[in-house]
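PT: before anyone asks, these are the final sequences, not the draft ones from last week. 1216 residues across everything. Please model them as a single complex and drop the result in this thread when it's through.
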Amino acid sequence: MFRTRTCGELRISNVNEEVTLAGWVQTVRKFGAITFVDLRDRYGITQLLFGEELNALLDSNPLGREFVLQATGKVSERSNKNANIPTGDIEINISTFKILNRSAVPPFTIQDDTDGGDDLRMKYRFLDLRRNAVKKNLEIRYAVNRAARNYLHDQGFMDIETPFLIKSTPEGARDFVVPSRMNPGQFYALPQSPQTFKQLLMVSGYDRYYQVVKCFRDEDLRADRQPEFTQIDCEMAFVEQEDILEMFEGMVKYIFKEVKGVDYIDQVERMTWEEAMWTYGNDKPDIRFDMKLANLKFPAHSFPAKENKESLIGGVNFKVFDEAETVIAIAVPGAAEYSRKQTDELTEWVKRPQVGMKGLVFIKCNADGTYKSSVDKFYGEEKLKAIADHANAKPGDLVLILAGAEERTRKAISDLRMELAERLGLRKKDEFRLLWVLDFPLFEYDEAGNRWVARHHPFTSPKPAHIDTMIINNPVIDNAAEYLRHPYAGIKANAYDMVLNGNEIGGGSIRIYQRELQEKMFAALGMDEEEQKHKFGFLLGAFEYGAPPHGGIAFGFDRLCAILGGSESIRDFIAFPKNNSGRDVMLDAPSAIDDKQFQELQIKLDLK
Amino acid sequence: MFRTRTCGELRISNVNEEVTLAGWVQTVRKFGAITFVDLRDRYGITQLLFGEELNALLDSNPLGREFVLQATGKVSERSNKNANIPTGDIEINISTFKILNRSAVPPFTIQDDTDGGDDLRMKYRFLDLRRNAVKKNLEIRYAVNRAARNYLHDQGFMDIETPFLIKSTPEGARDFVVPSRMNPGQFYALPQSPQTFKQLLMVSGYDRYYQVVKCFRDEDLRADRQPEFTQIDCEMAFVEQEDILEMFEGMVKYIFKEVKGVDYIDQVERMTWEEAMWTYGNDKPDIRFDMKLANLKFPAHSFPAKENKESLIGGVNFKVFDEAETVIAIAVPGAAEYSRKQTDELTEWVKRPQVGMKGLVFIKCNADGTYKSSVDKFYGEEKLKAIADHANAKPGDLVLILAGAEERTRKAISDLRMELAERLGLRKKDEFRLLWVLDFPLFEYDEAGNRWVARHHPFTSPKPAHIDTMIINNPVIDNAAEYLRHPYAGIKANAYDMVLNGNEIGGGSIRIYQRELQEKMFAALGMDEEEQKHKFGFLLGAFEYGAPPHGGIAFGFDRLCAILGGSESIRDFIAFPKNNSGRDVMLDAPSAIDDKQFQELQIKLDLK
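LR: through. Structure below.
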C-alpha cells in the first residue's frame, strides 16, 4: 500500500502521528524557504508542509499541478486553520516524499468552477471526473444504487440477470442490432428493457425480481437522452396495482432517507391521468407549486365529465377565443406589476416555434381591486374579474390566457406554467414532491396508420372493468374522424407513473397474463398471427403454462440520480456519457472496423 | 395482494390461522370425497385439503399440474406429517379457492429429476426455471452477488457503471460490433471487459472501483463458454500486489461464509506459475489432492532451476523415453491392483485425440514390496523402485508415466491426474481449496508471427525487477528457433490468478501506469505508433496527466457461482443461457432483421 491514511481523514486528534499519504497535487504555494502543497485524493484534501531541508530537493524536482505524490511526515496542528475543510486543523510536516508520476499541464483546471468547456471536458473525461462536482454526482449515483438494492433485498426481491444479446422485435423505439458471426445473416438485438424476461421470470415463479440494468434505444438523441441508459427494473407476481404503489413509494422514500437524509412521511399523492391533464396540462405535473390551469373552453370529448366555462369568455365577439378549440388561463402570483416589456417578452416566449402559440392574453389583477387587460376592448372589468376569479387569481396576480387547438394549447400553457415557476423560484432543488399518475389511456391513436398504438407497451393490462370492452369490440376504426368515439378510446390502462418534481422517474403496469387477452392486444396493434408468433411466440407460449397475475415498474435510474443531485441533466451523473450524436468523444467511438471483421460477420457497408 | 402467506412459511404454530395462498399446483391426489393438492411457490410447498363440500366444484373445474391457484382456508395440524419439508406438519383446510390461470400439460415434469432433455428444457426455459434444482442455482448466484457487493462496499469500493457501446479494438478475442445508425459506416463494440475504463477511473482518482458487469466475446463456443458472461470487476489505486491478494482472498472467504457457511480460515496458498507447471502440469492446479508430478526428464530451458532425473530412466536403451523430450510420472494411490483391462482402458484414454499421447507406461507397486511394470523388459526391479520412489509411490500405488514433447506431455499428465482424481472421488464438491498462482510469464511466443503476444493483456506490468529488461531490450526475435533465449522470454508479469478446486475463478495484475512503458509494451506486441494512437490514444493520453500506481482483478462470476453450487457447468447458473452455437433457443435469437433496419443502418449482407 502506498499510503497509511487518506487525504480526508486526519484531524486534530491525530497530531504527532507518522503518516504516509498519496494523491494528486492540487496547489503548490512557496513562501520563502517553505512550501505548502495541497494534496488531493478521493476522500479530501490535506495540507503538506515541506520545510527548509526539503527545499533543495523540491527545487530540483519541482512539483506541478496533478503530479502524483507519496509523502510521509508527522501530523501537526496548523497555526492558520482552515474551517472550510474537515482536515483544516492539521497539516503534515513532510520528512520524505516521492513523485510517483508526473503530469502535463491539464487542458482545464481541476476545480469546482472549471474553465473547461463541455467538449473539452468530455474529451478529457478522465480529468473532468477528478472534479469534486462530478465526483459528488457519481457518489450520489452509487448511494441510490446501494439504497435501492438494500430496500429491494429486504423486501425479498432477487437480482436476476437477463440477457443482453436478444431478439430484435422493433416495436416503438428502434433496436440496436449485433450481427452474429456464428449465425451468418442473423442479428441479435440489445434490449430496450428486460420487459419480456422479467415477465417470464414471473411465469417461472420468481415472484419478486429486480435488476439495475443497462438498456439501449437507437433513437435520435434529444438533449439529455442517452443511447444506453440504466433502469431499476422490478416485477412482482400475485399483486394488484395497490401493492405495487405501496412497495415502490416505500423504495423511493427509503432512497430519500438514505441518500438525502430526507424523511418523506407524507402519503404520496395520486391523480388520474385525466385530472393531471385537466389541472396541469401534462402527465407529469410538478406539484411543488400551484398555478393550476383554469379551463375556460375545451372540446367536450376530451373531458366529458368537466364543466364548460365558455360563458365567461363568450358573447363579446372576441374572435381569438370564439374560434379557438381550447382556452386556458393560469394566475401568476404577484406578477400584476409586470411592465409592458415583460408582458411583451412573455408573448414572444409563447410565440417561439417550440411553443407555437399565436399570442398571449393577460389580465392584471391590480392590488386596488381593479383589472386591466390586453383585451379591454372586448371585456369590461366585471367580465375580467369573473375570468380572474375562475383562475383563482388574487389581487396582485397576473392572469395569462392561451387559446388555440386543444393539444397544442394545453401543452403550451403547461410549458408556460413551468417557465414562470422557474423564473419565480418555485422549483426548489431541495424540495421533493412525489406523485402517482394513474389510469392512463391504454391506446393512443396513430393518425398516419388510422390505428391504435400502445401508449405504454403491448403487455400492459386494461383496467379490470375495461377488459370486456377490449375483448368484445373490434379494434378497427371505421371512421377516422370519429376515432374518439371508438370504444377503445375510452379504455384505461392498469398503469402508473411515478412523478418527482415534474419528471417521470418511473413507470409500470399490471401486465396481461392471459394468452387470449395478449393475442387480442397484439391484434389490436395490427400484428397478425404470424408476426405475433415470430416476435413474441415465447411469451404467448409461456402464458399457456400457468402464468400468474403480475405487474412491475422500471425507474429511470439516471434521471432519479440527477434530480436527487439537484440537476436535470442526466449526463452529469454518468461516468462516461455520449454526446448528442451518440459519440463517445474520449474514445472516438463509434469508429470504422477492419476488413477482417466485415468478412467474418459477412456484412458490408451500403452507404447512401 | 393475492395471498396473505407464502407456501414456505406455515408451521405448527400457525394452526387455526386463516390464510390465503397462491401458487402452482404440483400434484393432485384424490381420496374418495377429499382431495389433496400440493401448492408450490418460490418459498416452498404446502398441502391443501379440499373437503367433501368443495368436491363438486373441483369436479366441474378439475385442477391440473401447473394450474395457478388461489386458495383460502384454516391452517390445521396434519395427521400424516411429512418430515421432509418444513411445512410438513400442517395443511390448509380450504374453504374457498379460485383458479387464477390454467396450464397446458407441461412438455416435461417440473421436478428435481425431470424427464426433459437439454434441448426441450432450454426451449421451455421458463418452465425449467420452475424446477427446484435450477431455482437453487439462481439463489446461489444472487447470494454470491449480494455477498461480493456487501464486502466491497464495506471496504470502500464504489460501483461505477462503464459504457457498453464502446470502441472496437480487437486484441486477442473478437469483438461483437454494433452498427451506428447516427454515424453511418461506423460501429460500436461491446466490451470484452471494462479494463481500460476501470484504469481511467483510477487515473480519475476513484481508487476503489467495482462492478458486477456483463462482458462479451465473440469466440467459438467450447462447451461451457457463453458469448455474454458476467464478471466481478475490481480495481484499486495506490496498491501493490500484496494488497490486492489480501483484499480479494478476503472477499472470496467472505462469500464462502455468507453463501456456504464455510469458515475458510487457512491462509490462501501461493505458488509461482513455474512451480504450478512443474508440480501439477497446469496453471490452475486442483490442490485438494496430491498425485504431484514426478518430473523425470524435461528440456533444461523450461525449468532452468530444476534438477534433471534422466539418470533414473536412461541407459537401458528404452527408446520411448530416450527419444522423448519430456517424461513425467504420477503415483495413483491404491491403484496397484488395477486389472489388465483397466490399464488398457487408461492407455486408450491417453491415446484419445483430445489427449494425444502415443501410449502409457505403468509400474505397479505391489503391497508386498515387489514391482511389476509394462516395461519390465527394460527396467529391473531396482530401477522401477527408484522411479516409483521419485514419484512418491507407496506400496499399493500405481505409477503412470507419459513421454513425449514437453508441452503436450505436461498437459496430458495433468489431464490424466485430474481424470484419475475424478474416478477416485478425490474432487469433493464440498471441499474448497483456494490458491494464488503468481509470476506468470509476461509474454507468450506466437510462432506464426514470430513475435510476442501478451499472456494476460497489454496493460499488465512486468515485475518491478524486470521493467528494465523490457525497456532496454529490443523485442524483435532474430532467431525464431532460439526465442526462449530472448530476454523477453524470462520477463515475469506482476499478475496473479485465483484458483479454486482446479478452476481459475479470477485473475488480474498490477497495471502499467507510465506512458513510456505502455508504449514500449504496445510496440513489443507489434503495434506501431499510429495503431497505438488509434486504439488506445485515450489511455496513453490519460497516463500523461498523473496516473497513479494501480492494479485489479476480475472474477468469473458465472464460474464462481457454479463451483459454489457444486457444478462445473456455468450454463446451469444463468437464467437465460445460450447454446453452443450462441443461440437462445427459447427466443429463437439471433434472427433475421427487416429491410428497414438494413436501410437505416446502411449495411447489407455479404453472405459467402
